Amino acid sequence: MREQLAGTPAGAVPGRAGRRLTAGALALLCLLTALALAAGYANKARCTGPEFDQWGRSEPAYQERAYSEVCYSDVQNLWVGRDIDRHVFPYVHGGIDEDGSLHGGVVEYPVLSGLLIWLGALSVHTDAGFLAASALLMAPFGVAVAWWLGRLSGYRALLWALAPPLVLYAFHNWDLPVVACAVAAVFVVHRGGAPLRTRAVQGAVLLGAGFAFKIYPGLFVLPLALHVLTGGRGGAELPAGRRFDVRGALAVLGAAAGTVVLANLPFALAGFEGWWASFEFQSQRKVDLSTNSIWYWGFRGVADADGFQQVMGVVSPVAVLLSFTAACLAGEWLRRRTGTYPWIQVSAAALCGFLLLHKVHSPQYTLWLLPFFVLLRVRWGWVVAYLLADLAMGISIFRWMGEGGGIGDGFTAQALMIGVWGRAALLVGLFPAFLGSTSTVDEDEQEPPESDVERTVQLTRSPR
Q1: Cα→Cα distances 327→204, 332, 390, Å
Q2: How far apart are CA 443 and CA 440, in angstroms?
Q3: What is the C-alpha separation between 364 and 81, in angstroms, rounded?
Q4: % the chain with pLDDT above 90
Q5: Is 314 left (phi over 0), alpha (psi -120 to 50) or beta?
Q6: How far apart are CA 53 and CA 422, in angstroms?
Q7: Does the keyword Transmembrane feature in the UniProt annotation (predicted)?
Q8: Angle of helix 272-284 versus helix 246-270 axis, rounded to 10
Q9: Distance from C-alpha of 257 to C-alpha of 251, rounded to nearest angstrom
């Protein structure tokens, strides 16, 4: 029978047990998150009413108020223009016009987001009701993220509950469910009681569901598969006599792909044209102010030139693919040094590359990155600097659009440039910072490799 370290729970990693939260602390964390979500809803609701036109659009001067008062949200804005207000079931009856506009219930998001949008609009008749119903649908996902992060990383999860992005962006778009899928995948992989292969397959299903909400969790599937291929922490869960777990890695890839197919297949069969239109819309999307990426801000002077959009349609995805490849290769280099393929670190770095180089960088994407500030131990200077840059961008972009001035005019324009380029520079720095970080994931309920336990016992055992 294995000897237990004095003062350390059986199966615990020494030095980590103190970071576990009590049930009361977890409840407080969830309460703080709920309060932040309520503040986020109250901020967006300032743009609703007090009167409504025949389409249920808020009056008076909805658009001007949304920009000048910094209470704009895509949720409220898309009430009119996608047949959401008409309660049309998404994708089945629609398509995309020659000018790139969508019709017949098609929305520009993957199918699970489209289904969530339809549910939020089902029993309401104004943009205010749609915002409220959508917030009620999404809020539990935000609270669940807090609970999972608290279980994984202890008090560091307060960053999710207390950081400004949750107030600014929780109900800006439909992003809380996809963040929940990504965090739940980490939780299942690192706190489940089953063998690694089983836990990873379950995590891959969640990542596949996340892909069907908002695509980006698909970036994390290959790093997870490589983690399984190489046997997890310290290679301790490789099949006997094997250097690699090929079957486990393929199971991870297959589970994620199968989940994506199962989510999309009913919509593709019911109305292929409408289903495909959402993908075509994104492929045709131009680099312009609405995309808010470095490609727009860096090339504003030539954005209307012949061929520019076609070039960006190639350059941006190739750059994202190269950054993803670099992150995965860096993970293998780290595995050879440490014995463990760091799938969470690689996933975080890959997300940095995506946020920086993709032609669309909407403000609420900060919610995607925020859990990695909890799960990975990077210097607090990185975290604070990014949140400040994001705050400057998230507020000034709408104020600047409302003012209608030039990019060199006034404090708002300067704050916007500081936010846009400061955030971009920080993403460049966070790419290696995440790769070089250690995980804060609390693995108290995971048994460490046998050799590590025995070695620790031998070093701490009193002389006979």
Answers
A1: 19, 9, 24
A2: 9
A3: 21
A4: 75
A5: alpha
A6: 40
A7: yes
A8: 110
A9: 10
What Cα–Cα distance (Å) separates residue 368 from each residue in 6, 29, 44, 214, 348? 40, 19, 20, 10, 10
Closest CA to 102 of 278, 258, 270, 222: 278
What separation in angstroms does the CA of 266 have from each of 89, 282, 385, 417, 447? 13, 21, 44, 44, 41
- Pair 110, 278: CB distance under 8 Å: yes
The runs of H, that is alpha helices, within 122-220 are 127-153, 158-162, 164-169, 176-191, 196-214
Q: Do residues 57 and 50 make contact, with C-beta atoms less than 8 angstroms apart?
A: no
Residue positions counted in the chain: 464
Cβ neighbors of 46 (< 8 A, separation 6 or more) are: 65, 69, 71
Check whether 224 has a pLDDT greater than 50.
Answer: yes
Phi-psi region of 365 (alpha: psi -120 to 50; beta: other; left: phi over 0): alpha
**Smallest Cα–Cα separation from 38: which of 177, 167, 173?**
167
Other beta carbons within 10 angstroms of residue 137's beta carbon come to: 16
> Is the N-terminal amide bond of 9 cis, ω within 30° of 0?
no
Cα-based distances in Å from 214 to 6, 105, 116: 47, 18, 12
Are the beta carbons of 345 and 327 closer than 8 angstroms? no
* Per-residue model confidence (pLDDT) at position 193: 83
Q: Note the pLDDT tens digit of each residue in 164-190.
A: 999 999 999 999 999 999 999 999 999
Domain segments of the chain: what residues? 44-282+308-441
The strand pairing partners of 103, in sequence order, are 95
Q: CA 207 to CA 216: how far, in whole Å?
A: 9
Q: Are 367 and 179 in contact (CB under 8 A)?
A: yes
β partners of residue 297: none
Q: Give 30-80 pLDDT, tens digit per residue.
A: 999 999 999 999 999 999 999 999 999 999 999 899 998 999 999 999 999
In angstroms, the CA 451 to CA 374 distance is 29
- Residue 448 above 80 pLDDT? no
User: Given its phi and psi angles, is residue 154 left (phi above 0), alpha (psi -120 to 50 degrees) or beta?
Assistant: left
How confident is the model over 179-207, as a mean pLDDT?
Answer: 95
